[in-house]
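Fig. S4 source data, part A: sequence.
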Amino acid sequence: MLVMLGVFVFACMDNTTKYLVTRYDVPLVVAIRYIVNGLLMVILLTPSHGKRLVQTQRTGLVLLRGVCLAAASLVLGLALQRMPVAEMTSIVFLSPILVMLVAGRLLGEQVGAAGWVAAALGFTGILLIAHPGGGLDPVGTMLALCGVVVTAAYQLLSRILASTEHTVPMLFCTALVGSLVFGSLLPWTWGGPPPSTLELLLFFGVGAMGGLGHYLFTAAHRYAPASVLAPIMYAQLVWAGLLSWMVFGHVPDSMAILGMCVIAASGILVALKSRFTRQAMAEPAE
């Protein structure tokens, strides 16, 4: 239930971001998201965590992880200016497959036949979503694919750092990096029409939803292993499609819907492969 709520929050955040980036510069929207997120963490967590909020063991890698997420936020925001939320979300869900392939090289993990089948399914899904005549902006598609790469780097660093770092300092450092990077650009990105009361609430909501979504994911992992939760995360594709239809009136064509289902199947296959691999390693030798 925590993961289901978390992916719903992220789908709301993506649709809100798309609404805002049609009227304001992407760096401005992303800056406000990170600044609001960081301020909320300071207000809510400083009394209970104090100095532990910034205590890290491998600070360089933690900051690099924050830079990767900041880069992902920028390119995916630019992608949302050019393409629907559901299609963009589906493409970004290729990142676990890329993490699996890269981890095979860097961390010595076995990819196996199931892993290569999942990778082939994911590539097929992209071809179906971005098929000729589908109306997707090619630049937006390329930006989404760039988002896959930096998101995969962020997820890989999260896996590497999980053995030494606590979750809350990593989340705070991510918000801090994004706030500093995009906040420093505000003198050049601040502009656009004066925001209405609704738009001010949406700006605040983007930052609040980002923090809430990550908190729900973190809380969920206290009750169940990642291999159990990972398939549930693909419910975000359903939420993204429904909200995109309700807010923007966009309905993917049949080929794009098939591509989304194929990518979801490939991601679930990766999650199940990871689960069965852990179970096999845990079984005692005969």
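Fig. S4 source data, part B ends here. Residues 280-286 have pLDDT under 50 and may be disordered.
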